[in-house]
Amino acid sequence: MSNAPRVGRVVRFKRDDLWYYDRLPPTARQALANAAFDWAAGAFYNRWKKGQRGYKTGPDIAARVAHADASVISRIPNR
User: For the chain, what are the domain ranges?
Assistant: First the structure.
């Protein structure tokens, strides 16, 4: 063991994931529901509320979810 403090970014959401999911635009909710993997709705919600580029509309978020799914699927080795 060491006395070094924990280093890194800690993400703590204040509410359950379903709370964030319910407040996203319908297109984004549909994309998260049909995604190949379970993505945290809170991360998308926070960026959407801040108006970050690429997260401003439901279709923007849906495109991000699709891209994230494709990225993870492409890294899975064929069995």
Answer: 17-75
